[in-house]
Write a structure and sequence with these properties.
three-stranded antiparallel β-sheet; mainly alpha; 19 helices
């Protein structure tokens, strides 16, 4: 019997996401269905045999990497399975923890559908049709960011408009690039195609000056929903962008491309970090913090000849766990306090110390604190930047420092006793099922920081999907 691999990682999760949406009000069933599906597909991607066949007694299942649909071909290649496994594993973690009060019921089916659509976007041929899958991700993400009981706010509208504008730029760039391969290297059309493509990705990733929707959406959406979207969408889009560099040599050889990526990467770190440092609302602060992560990804892209591809891929698991921990802890904190402004959290750590520690460590991990997950990657990146240009290193360091400054401000408010709590002893009010996931996540963050080689060996299998970038 012969089966197509896209049936497993695209069609099946989409069908089960629809089933979970139908039974979204049955929370336990929805959580189990989406999380077990995501974890099962992740495990299958990890242990999938290289010979693309299974033997189950007298039955032998043969798999092919592609599936033809309406004259288009969707492929899930063996080389991309490690990355697909990571996306589905992260989706399972978010789904499993989505039972806390306040999380939109649609988060579970939508998260599974988003992961399936991004998997399809990475393997669609002709590849420019990936823009349509990414647009579908944008459209179906809106119900989990702004539930139907709420009126769409300006941030959602701006998010929808800017992401939709990006689609024709990607499509037009793909059409131009298909004819550029036969042109001489000095043709002006090559530079124009790259400019159109860059503008499309700038809109998709929320790169300055198209970033204004990020803190606006972050402030109004539930922390669990926004942390998932801010991880999954940029990760898929960045890996999709690698396909362009891998496919077209003239993009890799384009003059000043690396310098442009470094300039905008540094600018994103400075804008995100410094704005984070002066925020008063925790959810807006996370929105700006996520912009710094986009900046570091652009810096890694600019340093592909120096090993930046491996750093970019290593950022993804570290970012997944840090973003999940941030969304989970802040979701619980939101249920225990009247506001997420810093002044309203005064003395909160004296009542809920484990939640506070989890939130602080999530932000410090994003900032790259030593022994935590992102530290080895950021240290290597900063060292390389310093050898290339002192200005890039200095400004990136200053921007990243803003994340630490905000965390110190938050720590000060969390431990300073408020009027009601003054003079009373510290107390643990967290429940076991609330703080066990936090302790497990912190342990993994530390292991990733102390033993990055283990996780590097896992994620670098994805490098084989981009042979021209190594």
């Amino acid at each position: 019997m012969t089966l197509s691999m896209p049936i497993l990682w695209v069609i099946l999760p989409l069908v089960l996401a629809g089933l979970a949406a139908i039974f979204q009000k049955r929370r336990l069933f929805s959580i189990l269905l989406t999380s077990l599906t995501a974890f099962g597909l992740s495990a299958l991607a990890i242990f999938f045999p290289e010979e693309l066949s299974f033997s189950l007694g007298p039955i032998t299942l043969e798999f092919i990497e592609s599936l033809d649909i309406l004259g288009r071909q969707i492929s899930v290649s063996l080389a991309r399975l490690p990355f697909v496994a990571l996306l589905f594993a992260a989706t399972g973690v978010w789904a499993l923890s989505s039972g806390i009060a306040g999380v939109p019921d649609l988060l579970r089916p939508i998260s599974l559908a988003i992961t399936a659509l991004l998997t399809a976007a990475l393997g669609i041929e002709p590849f420019l049709y990936a823009a349509l899958f990414i647009q579908a991700v944008v459209l179906i993400s809106i119900p989990m960011l702004s539930p139907g009981t709420q009126k769409p706010h300006n941030g959602i509208l701006r998010y929808l408009i800017l992401q939709t504008i990006a689609m024709p730029f990607i499509l037009f760039a793909g059409w131009l690039l298909s004819g550029v391969e036969t042109l001489p290297p000095e043709s002006e059309l090559i530079g124009q195609s790259a400019m159109v493509l860059g503008l499309g990705f700038a809109l998709l990733l929320g790169i300055f000056p198209f970033h204004s929707w990020v803190p606006m959406v972050s402030e109004r959406a539930h922390p669990t929903a926004i942390s998932f979207l801010f991880f999954i969408a940029p990760s898929g889009i960045l890996v999709f962008s690698l396909s362009f560099f891998n496919r077209y040599p003239f993009l890799r050889d384009l003059e000043n491309l690396a310098a442009i990526l470094r300039i905008f990467g540094t600018l994103m770190i400075v804008v995100g970090g410094l704005w984070t440092a002066f925020q008063e609302n925790l959810k807006r602060a996370f929105g700006f913090s996520s912009l710094t992560e986009t900046g570091f990804s652009l810096l890694a892209l600019s340093l592909i000849p120096q090993g930046g591809l491996g750093w970019l891929l290593m950022f993804i698991p570290a970012r997944a766990l840090s973003f999940w921990l941030w969304g989970y802890t802040l979701g619980l904190i939101q249920n225990h306090t009247r506001s997420l402004n810093l002044r309203s959290l005064q003395g909160f750590a004296r009542r809920y110390p484990i939640l506070s520690i989890g939130l602080l460590l999530a932000q410090l991990s994003i900032a790259g604190l030593p022994i935590l997950a992102a530290f080895p990657i950021k240290l290597t990146l900063f060292t390389t930047l310093r050898s290339i240009g002192t200005a890039y290193f200095a400004w990136s360091f200053i921007g990243n420092l803003g994340l630490f400054l905000f965390t110190l401000r938050l720590l000060s408010y969390l431990v300073t006793p408020d009027g009601e709590f003054s003079g009373r002893a510290w107390a643990f009010n967290e429940r076991l099922h609330e703080y066990l996931p936090i302790l497990a996540a912190v342990l993994v963050l530390v292991l990733m920081g102390l033993m990055p080689g283990i996780f590097l060996a896992i994620i670098t299998n994805t490098l084989t999907a981009f042979p021209q970038l190594q």
